[in-house]
Amino acid sequence: xNRWVLLEHKISSSKLIDIHYDFLVEDQLDCITWKxxxxxxxxxxxxxxxxxxxxRLVWLSRVEHQLSNNRGLVKRIDHGTFSYLSHxxxxxxxxxxxxxxxxxxxxxxxxxxxQLTKKN
Length: 120
Prior knowledge:
Structural class: mainly beta
């Protein structure tokens, strides 16, 4: 079964605190990764995301980790298993059925936007 994880990434400096969320899905040798600016809430509409470079598989099992070079603290918010319902790299549309505690349902990623809805 394929694994996924939602990580809170908090970067603190003397002037501000930046918080975003890294959403990773297992893909054989590494994890396909997106940056979320908010936690997806069921049926709350689309929100902006950014595709990120793939991350290492080790992030699927980490609960909390302090990054080197003042790059912040990463904490696991949710995790679980998933299955692809569709994955069209050309159109950048991905539909993923998530099975987690917080995120459960159909996650639709369409280019730079994402939405969590009930399962089909």
